């Protein structure tokens, strides 16, 4: 039985995207706080407690769902946008950094997709946004970004965002790929996920890619991003002037060496 609202959508932009959701009367979409870009008149906002599902949970169930969301760094609350008027209305949500928005039809993906803990953008009301614990010991101790992940469950549309270029790969049964842990965006529920140590001291200490890879074995779909936000942020931080200094030498040939000749 279908539970999620059947919403329509359109994605605008190339590298700085937003998704426009079209709502019929009484249809709703859920989103994290801060992702709203714009909405038309007649759409009502409401803060709800829990994971956004429409499953009729009791208070303890909602408390448990909300508490698990805290583990991913998200709020206890989500926002529901409901079309309370007549005709069709639109509400739009923007990605927080350059990249792509990926629409996921959960009904066509086995009812569940596992994604990075900060990837969720918005979804049709009725989709549950929860926490996925990786049960394997290696993943738990060494997974870093991959240990606690989000899961989207239900039969409706969900939207996740990722950085840079997005690559979607269909893994055949037994097929294995290795991905930098930060580059993994999402995967379907039957993909076997673990963490593998990068062999070789030179590679581990000086390669710049970290000590561990995510290993993914099919069958299933995997979405990979070319520019994780953590990688982008570290490069921006490294290039920024330290200690509140001037950045006037940024475009010069000498760069930072020019400061040596200043009084």
Structure overview:
The chain has 263 residues and is mostly beta strands. It has one domain (8-234): Mitochondrial biogenesis AIM24 (Double-stranded beta-helix, 4-Layer Sandwich). It has helices spanning 59-70, 137-142, 201-206, 229-239; strands at 8-12, 18-23, 28-31, 36-39, 43-49, 77-83, 89-94, 99-105, 112-115, 120-124, 128-133, 148-153, 157-163, 166-171, 176-180, 184-188, 192-197, 212-217, 220-225. A six-stranded antiparallel β-sheet has the order 5-6-3-10-13-8. The protein has a six-stranded antiparallel β-sheet with strand order 11-12-9-16-19-14. The protein has a four-stranded antiparallel β-sheet with strand order 1-2-7-4, with no helix packed on it. A hairpin with a 5-residue loop joins strand 1 (8-12) and strand 2. The radius of gyration is 21 Å and the shape is globular.
């Amino acid at each position: 039985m279908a539970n999620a609202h059947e919403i329509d959508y359109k994605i605008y932009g190339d590298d700085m995207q937003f998704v426009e959701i079209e709502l019929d009367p009484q249809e709703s979409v859920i989103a994290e706080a801060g992702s709203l870009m714009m909405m038309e008149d007649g759409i009502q906002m409401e803060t709800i407690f829990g994971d956004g599902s429409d499953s009729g949970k009791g208070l303890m169930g909602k408390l448990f769902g909300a508490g698990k969301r805290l583990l991913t760094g998200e709020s206890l609350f989500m926002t529901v946008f409901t079309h309370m008027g007549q005709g069709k209305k639109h509400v739009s949500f923007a990605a927080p950094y350059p990249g792509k928005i990926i629409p996921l039809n959960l009904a066509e993906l086995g009812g569940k997709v596992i994604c990075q803990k900060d990837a969720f953008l918005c979804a049709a009301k009725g989709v549950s946004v929860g926490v996925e614990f990786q049960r394997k010991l290696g993943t738990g101790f060494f997974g870093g970004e991959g240990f606690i992940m989000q899961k989207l469950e239900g039969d409706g549309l969900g939207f996740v965002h990722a950085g840079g270029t997005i690559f979607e790969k269909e893994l055949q049964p037994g097929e294995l790929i290795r991905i930098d842990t930060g580059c993994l965006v999402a995967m379907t529920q039957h993909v076997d996920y673990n963490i593998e140590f990068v062999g070789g001291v030179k590679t581990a200490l000086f390669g710049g890619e970290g000590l561990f890879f995510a290993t993914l074995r099919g069958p299933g779909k995997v979405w990979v991003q070319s520019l994780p936000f953590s990688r982008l942020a570290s490069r921006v931080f490294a290039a920024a002037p330290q200690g509140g200094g001037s950045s006037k030498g940024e475009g010069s040939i000498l760069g930072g060496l020019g400061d040596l000749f200043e009084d």
